[in-house]
Amino acid sequence: MKVTLEELRAFLDEQFPQGAAFGSLQKLGDGWAEMKLAVDEEHLRPGGTVSGPAMMGLADVTVYAALLTRIGLVPLAVTTNLNISFLRKPVAHRPIWARAKMLKVGRTLGVGEVFVYSEGAEEPVAHSTMTYSIPPER
After folding, report:
1. Over the stretch 75-118, which tens digit does the pLDDT of each residue have?
2. Is 48's pLDDT higher than 80?
C-alpha cells in the first residue's frame, strides 16, 4: 500500500476539498477503501430517497481513494467512465456507505467496483464500476 489513511485524508482535504461533500474516508487497505456519507435534506429526492448524484459522488470518491492506495497521491487521476446500477431504495435520513476495490491497475488505467449500502441494511442499494485515467509519471 502506497499511502496511509491519515496521508490520504490530508491529501483529499488539500487537493479535493469539495470531496468532503461526498463523504468521509473511514477505512483503507491495499486496493480498497470505505467511505461514509451522512445523509441530510440536501441529499434527498422527492419520495424520501437518497439522490442518484449523492450515491454516484460517494462511489466515485471511494474508488479514487482505493486507486490511490495502489498508485500513490496522484491528484490528476480522473474518472473516464462510470456505470452505476441503482438496486433498491436507500433509507432516508440514514447514512450510506461505500466499499470499493480495484479490479485492475495498469500503467494508464485503473478499473474498480464499488457497492453502496444504506446503514443497517445487508443488501446493497447501488453497484458501480468505473475506470480512472492515470497520468504518466514525469
Report:
1. 899 999 999 999 999 988 889 999 999 999 999 999 999 999 99
2. no
For the entire predicted model, the pTM comes to 0.94
Task: Identify the residue with better confidence: 129 or 21.
Answer: 129
Q: Judge contact between 115 and 99, C-beta under 8 A.
A: yes
Question: Do the beta carbons of residue 83 and residue 93 sit within 8 Å?
Answer: no
Q: Read out DSSP for the chain?
A: --S-HHHHHHHHHHH-GGGGGG-EEEEEETTEEEEEE---GGGEETTTEE-HHHHHHHHHHHHHHHHHHHH-S-TT-EEEEEEEEE-SPPPTTS-EEEEEEEEEE-SSEEEEEEEEEETT-SS-SEEEEEEEE-PPP-
Structural domain boundaries enclosing 12? 5-133
**Residue 64, domain member (yes or no):** yes
- State the CATH number of the domain containing residue 26: 3.10.129.10
